[in-house]
Amino acid sequence: MATEIVAEKDAAAYHRIVEKYELDADSTWMIGNSPKSDINPALAAGLHAVFVPHGNTWVLEHDELQGAMPPQRC
Fold first, then answer.
1. Contact status, residue 35 vs residue 63, Cβ threshold 8 Å
2. Closest C-alpha among 20, 12, 22 to residue 46
3. Does 62 score more than 70 pLDDT?
4. How far is CA 65 from CA 3, 30, 51, 70, in A?
């Protein structure tokens, strides 16, 4: 298990983490409250995602949730 803090949460950052730890995208999940920096970039990187809505999410983190492409799950 590891913790990563990245300067920018985007698909490229998630790809680097998957490669660094040799993770299997089919069993790797991003869990977060921000569609903009948690969920959508994870889906773009081919990962699964769990969106946990929070009423106090910063307005700049609001975005439309992208749909997961099979076999992804969201």
1. yes
2. 12
3. no
4. 25, 14, 9, 15
